[in-house]
Design goal:
Blueprint lengths: L2 H7 L21 E2 L27 H5 L4 H18 L3 E2 L23 H16 L4 E7 L12 E3 L2 H8 L1 H10 L3 E4 L3 E2 L2 E2 L4 H10 L4 E4 L7 H6 L13 H9 L5 H18 L9 H15 L1 E5 L11 E4 L24 H7 L4 E4 L4 H9 L3 E7 L18 H13 L3 E6 L14 E4 L7 H9 L13 E2 L17 E3 L8 H6 L4 E3 L10 E9 L2 E8 L5 E10 L11 E10 L4 E7 L6 E4 L4 E4 L2 E8 L5 E9 L15 E3 L2 E3 L2 H8 L16 H5 L4 H9 L9 H5 L15 H11 L3 H16 L1
Helix pairs in contact: 3-4, 3-11, 4-6, 11-15, 12-15, 13-14, 21-22
Bound molecules: beta-D-glucopyranose.
């Protein structure tokens, strides 16, 4: 194969395909989003054009609450069948990023605030796909935890935190499921774009990844540098990158070996995946599985006796979300659902005695409520409020929804609140509602699943895979999440999510792992065996039900900074009423390890560890201790003197964070280059341009103006095949005060690319 073909192969043909060279035995690879169902576009276009109707599965943040690896494996298998039916070879999923802050617009696309949960569920998803011949794309690698400025922002993360929190889930999926591709995140990690981040890519290779590193769509800032440092495939593609790569190869900056390695990875993938002839799948079977998945995802947060409700009772359903469910969030993961069960439709079908009102007038709602036994209010976000491309500004429901719930609770004794969001919200009325269900965004069967749970046909079993804090200010990354569009300092280090709330006793609304049931489980007879721990779990209540049991490990006398408890393993168990089972957790060394930044490796500190069996992190039923051998003088960069806990908050000064990092945080350089966004240009002399564009509300269908303002110049490449890197270079020169040179370059590039 000559170099021209090789260079062509390392960038895709268009948005969704790689190039094929049949004469070289390299077939095409077709890709599609993921992760909550297929998004096969009807016609190519910019933004998120209409896609072919598909099964809308519960979003990953909902599936995270199931803690059920078998269920997620089944969903992976079902998705593989859907891919085969649509001619898709690689599904761009799953997203397993760590949820650092509830405001991140894409949190609904991720499983959990715990890397063990994300790693185990992510592995099940990937195995389900790949065992059926469809490749996964594990994304977004790595430390991609905010949407604001996502294409350029620098995630600054200390080494131990990076390994223990942000890379851990990726490592697990590499070990347990060997994904065929990994998608490099848009952001920078410690000053280097993920697509060019040799540390990240070498790390995954060392852990055993042998597939294709693919860029996130339009995530390449410098094609040659990306390939040199390990990226294999630039997406979406056309001939954009060719000239830059050719030049780097000629100058010897990019070695022939590196280029050949990428070619080998892509052609291996193409040979592995492209053998399916489209075959229809059993839609009903998938819809049934989507129902089971939704049932296992809905968390019963509070029940003062109102649930389950009875068919003889009368109901007032309040809120448009019960009439038009929000089945998923917005952005590249949005599925055009083939059907959606809305709660009111299901109530109609089952002939339940109910009335519906939107809730627009609070007075009217109260009047109507008085005529019914039970009030069920659906509160949450409408489709575009949680989205790829931008973050939430706060953690609140609308003030109308909050007022409505409060007033209803003041005027009716039996109010059940159903929350339809993909991430936590504040609940100022929490004490007043009689029942609270976290429905999440549960896909096309959400309405049926909710109804089954409300009426006790299904016993709720889900647990929160993410803490519901009382208020946004309590979130450990609160002060360093949206304070700087260009940099994100992960100052809280390992103290994210429950690791923080639990260790520092911060009161929360509902803790990690919280989830009630209609039945009762008892836990007894804890024993430690040969590197294992076991106990008896009994369903001694009145319902057949599923339950997730968790193993947490702590080390009170550790000489390094640690969280009070860390989840190390979990099992989802189904028990009929009266049934009991011996549950065994086999231990392994990784459960006792911390990441030592002097040895740059995982180590075990010698001492007495606490092994705790629980549900929620603050609900430990059984506990024992175990001595583990290991090193005596562990070292951690996260030291107590670097942080201060006062007035209910963790404070880490910049100087302390720099000590933890072992370096100074670089100043953001606001020069104009291909990575500059419209917002950056505003700081220069281009305010007029930014202003003109700001007047338009929606420049591209479905894409917010703020997203466009934060998009770097280089993304213009995605708008038209005629635009090349040379065009971008010309524009940069023009903006840097070299109009003649710049315009000449732009025109030349456009002319030559037309040829
Ligand atoms: C998203 C990816 C997605 C890709 C293709 C990007 O904007 O970050 O998650 O797979 O687009 O649609």
């Amino acid at each position: 194969m000559d170099n021209q073909k090789k260079i062509a192969l390392i960038a895709g043909r268009d948005n969704w395909h790689t190039r094929d060279f049949p004469e070289e035995g390299i077939p095409v690879v077709t890709m599609s989003d993921g992760p909550h169902g297929l998004r096969v576009e009807k016609k190519a276009g910019i933004g998120f054009p209409q896609s072919v109707p598909a099964v809308a599965w519960p979003v990953l943040s909902a599936l995270g609450c199931s803690f059920d690896t078998e269920l997620i494996h089944e969903i992976g298998t079902a998705l593989a069948e859907e891919c085969i039916a649509e001619g898709v070879d690689v599904l761009l999923a799953p997203g397993i990023n760590h949820k650092r802050n509830p405001l991140c617009g894409r949190n609904f696309e991720y499983f959990s605030e715990d890397p063990v949960v994300s790693g185990e569920l992510g592995s099940a998803y990937v195995n389900g796909l790949q065992e059926n011949g469809i490749g996964a794309s594990l994304k977004h690698y790595a430390a991609n935890s905010r949407e604001e400025g996502r294409l350029v922002t620098d995630s600054i993360v200390e080494e131990r935190t990076l390994h223990e929190i942000y890379l851990r889930a990726f490592d697990t999926v590499i070990h347990k499921a060997k994904p065929w591709t990994m998608m490099m995140a848009y952001n920078m990690l410690n000053g280097i774009y993920c697509c060019e981040n040799e540390f990240l890519m070498n790390h995954a290779r060392k852990e055993g990844f042998d597939g294709v590193f693919v860029s996130d769509w339009g995530g390449v800032s410098d094609p040659a540098a990306s390939l040199i440092h390990g990226l294999n495939l630039i997406m979406p593609g056309n001939h954009h990158a060719d000239a830059k790569v050719q030049e780097a190869l000629e100058k010897g900056i990019l070695s022939q070996d590196k280029l050949d390695e990428s070619v080998r990875c892509i052609s291996d993938l193409a040979k592995k995946v492209s053998h399916h002839s489209p075959k229809p799948y059993d839609i009903q079977k998938h819809l049934d599985l989507a129902l089971k998945a939704a049932e296992e995802s809905i968390v019963l947060l509070k029940n003062d006796g109102v649930l389950p409700v009875k068919k003889e009772q009368s109901f007032l359903l309040v809120g448009n979300l019960l009439k038009m469910s929000n089945h998923g969030g917005n952005g590249s993961s949005k599925v055009e659902a083939i059907s959606v069960d809305h709660v009111t439709d299901i109530f109609d079908k089952r002939k339940i005695n109910y009335a519906f009102y939107s809730g627009k007038s609070i007075e009217k709602t109260i009047r109507l409520a008085k005529e019914k036994d039970i009030v069920i209010i659906g509160a949450g976000y409408y489709e575009n409020e949680e989205s790829e491309g931008y973050d939430r500004k706060n953690m609140r429901l609308s003030s109308h929804q909050n007022r409505l719930i409060r007033e209803l609770c003041n005027n009716h004794d039996h109010v059940i609140v159903v929350i339809q969001t993909g991430s936590p919200v504040e609940m100022p009325w929490k004490e007043d509602a009689e029942g609270i269900l976290y429905m999440n965004l549960t896909g096309c069967r959400g309405g049926s699943a909710l109804t089954n749970i409300l009426f006790g046909m299904t016993c709720p079993s889900a647990r929160l895979a993410e803490t519901f804090p009382q208020k946004l200010e309590d979130v450990p990354s609160y002060a360093h999440f949206s304070d700087n569009p260009h940099q994100m300092e992960y100052r809280e280090g390992i103290f994210t999510g429950y690791r923080y709330y639990d260790t520092f006793d911060i009161p929360v609304n509902y803790g990690f792992g919280h989830g009630l049931s209609y039945t009762h489980f008892s836990y007894s007879d804890l024993k430690t065996g040969d590197y294992s721990v076991s106990f008896t779990l009994k369903n001694d209540g009145d319902y057949d039900a599923r339950n997730t049991v968790c193993l947490y490990i702590g080390f009170k006398d550790s000489s390094i900074t640690r969280a009070a408890k860390e989840l190390k393993a979990f099992q989802s168990v189904y028990l009929k009423k009266g049934e009991e089972k011996r549950i065994v957790f086999n231990l392994d060394e990784s459960m006792f390890q911390y990441y030592d930044i002097q040895k740059h490796d995982w180590m075990i500190e010698e001492g007495m560890y606490q092994l705790m069996i629980g549900g929620a992190v603050n609900e430990i039923f059984l506990q024992t201790e175990m001595y583990h051998e290991g090193i005596q003088n562990p070292y951690s960069s996260i030291q107590k003197e670097f942080y201060e806990f006062s007035e209910g908050k963790l404070h880490i000064e910049k100087a302390s964070f720099e000590k933890m990092l072992g370096r100074q945080i670089p100043q953001f350089k606001n020069n104009i280059d291909a990575d500059s966004s419209l917002k950056d240009l505003e700081l220069h002399t281009f305010r007029f341009l930014a202003k003109v564009l700001s007047k338009k509300k929606e420049l591209l269908p479905g894409v917010r103006l703020s997203t466009i303002q934060e998009t770097p110049l280089r993304q213009i490449l995605m708008a038209d095949q005629k635009i090349t890197w040379e065009t971008i270079d010309g524009m940069v020169e023009l903006l840097n005060g070299m109009p003649v040179k710049g315009i000449k370059k732009v025109l030349k590039s456009l002319k030559s690319s037309r040829l």
